[in-house]
């Protein structure tokens, strides 16, 4: 049996990989883009995605995953989807499998303080670029979810809704989501009362009520509305 590690892969692409990718349902993410790039001569094709763009608290987390080609494709790979389409239980089951079988995986975090300093768009790109740069097996091509363009010397392609179509990006979305959810559970222990483990920092009614009662915690993004109104009431009133 071919052995796998996070940092390397000793197998070779074969008909099994190609056939299983072609048979995958059209609505599921597949390896068609990775296969096309492989045929062009690229051998280390990463997918990159992020989670945490919209919350009022917590970090942005990005993952980079070198998933293609898999020497032996298990049934689990057909269950990989955009993390938003999976339950927490499904994500928790798939993430360790991705970590075990991918050729390489890296995760990067941009803190709330950094988000406030650079803005959310730059924070998302920074997290993605950090994850890509931290891969133990360096990518020679990267497929990036959305319209983002990364500051990197690696050849890249932006794929709108890539987490719905590209298996490597979908895998990255799962790893990033599971990692961020765990970080938010840790923040719940560090800053009890705001309900971070439940709402993951998003602006739910419960979260907004906690903000009204407790004010912002150190984990909150003070540049985000309604945090600005809480921390800079005079400036918010003057802007109305």
Describe what this molecule looks like in 3D.
The protein is of the alpha/beta class and about 240 residues long. The protein has a single domain, classed as Nucleotidyltransferase, domain 5 (2-Layer Sandwich). Helix content is about 45%, strand content about 15%. The protein has helices spanning about 15-25, 30-40, 90-100, 110-120, 120-135, 160-165, 165-190, 195-200, 205-215, 225-230, 235-240, and strands at about 45-50, 60-65, 105-110, 140-145, 155-160. The chain has a 5-stranded mixed beta sheet, sandwiched between helices. Strand 1 (about 45-50) and strand 2 (about 60-65) form a beta hairpin. The termini are far apart. About 45% of the residues are buried.
Gross morphology is globular
Range of strand content? 5-15%
Structural class: alpha/beta
Task: Give the second-level CATH assignment, the architecture.
Answer: 2-Layer Sandwich
Summed up, the domain count is: 1
Ends: how far apart?
66 Å
List SSEs in N-to-C order: HHEEHEHHEEHHHHHH
CA radius of gyration is 19 Å
CATH class: Alpha Beta
Largest sheet: 5 strands, mixed
Total helix count? Answer: 11
Kindly state the number of beta strands: 5
- Widest sheet: strand order? 3-2-1-4-5
């Amino acid at each position: 049996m071919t052995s796998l590690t996070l940092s390397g892969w000793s197998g070779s692409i074969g008909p099994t990989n190609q056939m299983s990718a072609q048979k995958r349902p059209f609505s599921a993410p597949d390896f068609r883009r990775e296969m096309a790039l492989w045929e062009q001569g690229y051998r280390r094709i990463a997918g990159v995605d992020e989670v945490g763009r919209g919350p009022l608290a917590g970090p942005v987390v990005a993952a980079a995953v070198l998933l293609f080609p898999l020497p032996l494709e298990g049934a689990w790979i057909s269950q990989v989807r955009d993390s938003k389409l999976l339950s927490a239980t499904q994500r928790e089951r798939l993430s360790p499998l991705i970590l075990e079988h991918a050729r390489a995986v890296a995760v990067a975090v941009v803190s709330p303080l950094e988000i406030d300093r650079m803005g959310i768009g730059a924070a998302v790109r920074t997290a993605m670029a950090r994850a890509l740069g931290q891969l133990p097996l360096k990518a020679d091509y990267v497929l990036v979810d959305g319209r983002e363009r990364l500051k990197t010397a690696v050849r890249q392609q932006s794929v709108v809704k890539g987490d719905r179509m590209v298996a490597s990006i979908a895998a990255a979305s799962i790893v990033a989501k599971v990692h961020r959810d765990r970080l938010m559970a840790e923040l719940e222990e560090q800053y009890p009362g705001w309900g971070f483990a439940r709402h993951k920092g998003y602006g739910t009614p419960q979260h907004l009520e906690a903000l009204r009662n407790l004010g912002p915690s150190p984990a909150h993004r003070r540049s985000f509305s309604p945090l600005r109104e809480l921390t800079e009431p005079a400036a918010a009133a003057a802007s109305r």
